[in-house]
Amino acid sequence: MNAPALSPIVLLFAAVFTSNILLSNFLGMCSFISISGNIKSSNGLGIAVILVMTISSAINWFIDRFIMLPLGLGFLSFIVFIMVIAATVQILEMVIERISPALYMALGIFLPLITVNCAILGVVLFIQIRHYTFLQALLFGFGSGVGWWLAILALAAIRAKVDKSPVPSGLKGPGITLITIGLMAMAFLGFSGMLAVQ
Amino acid sequence: MNTPSFKQVTIRNLWSENQILIQVLGICSTLAVTNNLINTSIMALGVVFTTGFSNLTISSIKTLIPRKVRMITQVLIIAFYVIVVDLVLRAFLPSVSRALGPYVGLIITNCIIMGRAEAFAQNQPPLISFWDGVTAGAGYMAVLLVVAFIRELLGFGSLYGFRVMPQGFPTWTIMLMAPSAFFILGIVIWIAKSAMGRKKKA
Asked: A52 is in which domain, residue-wise?
């Protein structure tokens, strides 16, 4: 199987805009909906997602290519990937605590949440299924993280306004949030004419 | 903690505390395949299977799991059942398995499964935990089937692949694209919440 012939830079832009991990692939919705009520925490979680996604897509690429494939352990990949993500999160937490206590205070509570963020596992599985090269995998992981960060910041800003508007009582909370996300997804569809990358 | 009866669990999971309608949990892994009823049904059945059996397993061995490592143990148990689902799909329904792609693996990170394990199986006996998992999955399945029904009917003019709309029915392309899933789920939640609110007042 060969990697798709795409320039990694094109892939980076595609991951941020045209096939945004959240708005066109629906990944990472759980924490997206519960955190986006607050702009500051959204920013913190978004940055943590970018970090973990980039690092774990790189590590998992090596594990998949040099351990799982040669040994024919493909069927174990789900377990291995999720363990690597959990370990990455744990190590990152310790490193950040050591190097920058201020950053740790800001990101601390969000890091454990990331292990169960579907977007991270999703990106890793996409990389495996599409046979990306290392550079493609790295930029795809980074781009998807940036796309997620962009989407959650935008939604948090919109929700700050929506919360003050009169909304029918049944639609309050998750209902109106989902419809807002739908409108955002439509706006992002506008980018899809630029590049066609699946 | 008191053990609720089977009937209480059923009503709570299917309607009054439905995981999607009330808590908006776990839509990540499945919303993407709701433009097609067949894929949605298979994905949702996978979720029902995984939630039920991982709840049963976790509840059976809960006294053996040290509290400190319980999250990672739960993830491993869930991953085990998801691998079973994945292998069964690959063996018996290869075309569906290809269409679902990475989304089968994403059942692992479906928040509902972790949520039920943490909130219920962790401190209840095995049999009722199994039932709780199955009904929570069924409540989830019901909502997603409604979304998929609307999207497939308007997007392709068909249900489960059979044409039901008359020839020349203009299909709604928007229904096949991502935004419509958000709109329809938002509206379904709106209707359900209004219905619940009315019942409470009466």
From this structure: 8-189
